[in-house]
Design goal:
By secondary structure, the protein is α+β, with helices and mostly antiparallel strands. The chain has a single domain, classed as tt1808, chain A, CATH 3.90.1570. It has three helices and 14 strands.
Length: 208
C-alpha cells in the first residue's frame, strides 16, 4: 500500500545552519540492496562514519546531522523506551539508527525503529524487512521525492505505521495503510501497536 500522494515539500527555517545537501551517485548507477550492503563503510577526514541510504536503487549520502535533529530523535526514542520498559508483554524494542533491508532496492536507517524482539539477531548485519514502526525526523536536506519513496517502501515492506517528524512545523504526520493524519501541539500521538502509549506532539520538541 502506497502513502497518499500529497506529502508537503519540507520547509525548514528553525534550525540553522542546515545540513549539507544530499548528494548521490551518478544517475545511471542503480544498485540492489544486496550490492549496497556489500559496499565497504566510508569515513570522512575526521573519522566520522558517512551515512548513506539506498532509496529506490539510488545511493543517497547524508551529511553529519544537526544537534537539534539528534536531540529530537533521542527524545522520541527515550519516551518509547520508557513506555516499552513498563510494558514488556508487547515484546517490542525501540532502537536508534538501525540499518534496515526494506526491499530489493531500498535500504534505510530510520532515526528510530520500533521492532519485535524476535526479529533481532546478533548474527545479522541489518534488520531484514521494514520496522513495525519507522520514525523519520525530517532534515533540511531531505526532498519530498525521497521522503515519499521511503514512506511507500516502509509500508509496502511491512511497517504498520510511519511517523514523519517535522521540526520546524513542530508536527507529526502518521502514515498507515491508505491513510495519513497530521498532529500538532498538544494533540496526542498514539499507535495501535503501542496500546496505552500517548504523548502530546509538543513533547517531542522540548529540547531544553
Amino acid at each position: 500500500m502506497r502513502a497518499p500522494d500529497s506529502i508537503p515539500s519540507p520547509s525548514f527555517r528553525m534550525f540553522q545552519p542546515p545540513r549539507a545537501k544530499i548528494t548521490s551517485m551518478a544517475a545511471t548507477t542503480l544498485l540492489t540492496s544486496d550490492q549496497f550492503l556489500a559496499l565497504p563503510e566510508e569515513f570522512d577526514p575526521n573519522g566520522n562514519r558517512i551515512k548513506d541510504e539506498l532509496i529506490g536503487g539510488e545511493v543517497v549520502r547524508m551529511a553529519f546531522p544537526s544537534l537539534p535533529h539528534d536531540l529530537i530523535k533521542n527524545l522520541i526514542n527515550a519516551r518509547l523506551i520508557s513506555f516499552l520498559h513498563t510494558n514488556p508483554q508487547l515484546s517490542l524494542v525501540s532502537l536508534v539508527e538501525v540499518g534496515t533491508h526494506v526491499s530489493d532496492v531500498d535500504a534505510f536507517m530510520p532515526d528510530v525503529s520500533v521492532v519485535t524482539r524476535r526479529r533481532l539477531s546478533l548474527d545479522a548485519r541489518v534488520l531484514e524487512g521494514a520496522p513495525e514502526i519507522a520514525i523519520e525526523v525530517v532534515s533540511p536536506s531531505d526532498t519530498a521525492k525521497h521522503l515519499k519513496r521511503k514512506i511507500d517502501a516502509y509500508l509496502e515492506g511491512g511497517s504498520k505505521s510511519v511517523w514523519i517528524i517535522f521540526p520546524e512545523a513542530r508536527s507529526v504526520q502518521v502514515f498507515t495503510e491508505g491513510s495519513m493524519r497530521e498532529l500538532k501541539a498538544n494533540q496526542p500521538i498514539t499507535d495501535p501497536l503501542l496500546p496505552g502509549f500517548s504523548s502530546p506532539v509538543s513533547a517531542f520538541f522540548e529540547l531544553a
